[in-house]
Records
---
Amino acid sequence: MRTKIEGNGITEVDGSEEKPKVLFEGGFSKPKDGSTGGQVFACSSLVSSDLKDHVQWILLDTTMDSLPPPPFIHRLRKAIFRTHKFLWLLAVRRPDVVIIFTASGASFVEKGMHVFLARCMRTPVLLSPRSGKDQRMMERSVFFRWYIPFVLRQCSLVICQSPEWASFYQRTGKLQASRIKVIPNWIQVPSSFTGEGKSIDGSVKVVYMGWMEKHKGIYELLEVISDNQSRWRHVQFFFAGNGSEFSAFCERVENLSLDPIVKCLGWVYGEGKERLLASADCFVSFSYAEGMPNALLEAAAAGCACVATDVGASDTILPDKSFGLLVPAGDKVALEKALDSMIFNRELRIQTGSRARAYVRKNFSVDNAVNRFHEAIMSQVK
């Protein structure tokens, strides 16, 4: 098999002409600022998996340049260019199937146009919405209340991250059940994640890992930490991530004199991330919206006791209290009680972390996702 880089974000992975050609639009590369996210891993892991032995990939990279996003004019130019390339690939390369991974907002607007173009070319489209904000967008915007259902109805198949999201998209688009498929998020768990190495000296290590954005609830989480600083003197909180709020968040930590117990790490990668999660006792997320959070999957797979908001597909990862604790979004009192339970009960941390670890490793593997995507692709090949 031969890979040829054609530039301008387009890659063709050539193989036998007998294999179906799949135009895959999604995130495949790290942005220039070094940030990363779940969509890049999801797309890249599918392309490098055994699926490459069964399909010819034609890749259109739509990775965002940076966070915060670049100026609107810059993004608009790139969106227009990508749309031109997408149409060219449809007309010239004639793919048998199109797969599109999309986030929310402007990403959904652009990708929705591509779905429509593919439909006009009579090419089946598998759309995979990856954001947890679609429902909120519909609640707040007349345009999205019309546009999201319109786009869903153009798709041959909508790939959802959980049964809850499947119900939402089926209801929103008024789709038949046959046009909905559930494929939960997946992770590649390193063998070094043994679940061992957690604190045994009375100290507790709590990790947040993800984008540093307001909708992730990072400032509310910081307020809870500040309110309990004296009680949680034996706890260290590590914030691993970056984003538009990173500098302001670190400044807030300093202003609240939380430096002794709160550490801002920025992004952590590879072995550094493995070591961080392997040594962490607890993982915390207080996000207001999620699709299916990869950070929560990775933390659970590492044996961390998890506290997260009950949004998106979080309850698919932690189905009940024996796997971890879920709290309502924005409820700081509930968050404080859940963290208290984990911080002051080592046995609970060990039990929930161990059970979540086994559950995630069994149900959210790359192999499971690859098999389901292969079924989805082949179901659309004429």
Note: The domain at 204-363 is CATH 3.40.50.2000 (Rossmann fold).
---
Amino acid sequence: MKSWQSRINGLALASALAPALYGHALAQRKPSFDCGKAASMAEKAICADPALAQTDADIAAKYAAALKTLDARAGKALRDDQSDFVSYRDHIAEFNQGIPKDQQTTDLGEFMRDRATYLAGIRKPADKGFIGTWSSIRGTVEIKSAGGGKLDVSEDIANPVSGSGACDIGGTVKAGKELRLVDTDDQDKATGFVFAFRRDGDALVVEQSGAGKDGASEPPSCGANGHVDGAFFLNEKQ
């Protein structure tokens, strides 16, 4: 049995550690920005919710780590992707204003946690090849070996908040320094659009060119205002 003195010493140690532990917990909840200057609806929501503040801090830390992992060109593309994330995040907070949580179509906390997970999964490519899962805030490009010097390519993207501007394309292409996918319709006839996939440093860049029949501005595989253009980053699901 412990002596009274040892119990007293233990209580004294616990009392001494409590403020430090409590202070550490508060530090963990501090977001990546100054709450005194919070301007957007999202920033105010983050400052008012310790869980959101913690997630915001996680996003900032994982974003900084990803930037250190990637080369300068991919880093610039990731900065643009992060800017898009912030814009979508702010829209979600505005959409949710005054709406009960059980009636909200998009949960701000879940959207932010998904972003933290995504950033943690970004990897620096081991070579200049194409095979792998490449992702951005708008969606994913999947490239697999099809054998015989060919690759299977698919891209599935959309506005992550509204679901608009969706595109779902895919096909088998010849491997090379640039991958060119000719868009075809249900009858396997060319639609006039061509999708090019190329490496730009550590990023994968997709570019859409051509014009559709009858003045169509989007490929048949895309919704209104849909386009496949963008930069994507090698990503491992966490």
Note: The CA atoms of residues 146 and 152 lie 6 Å apart.
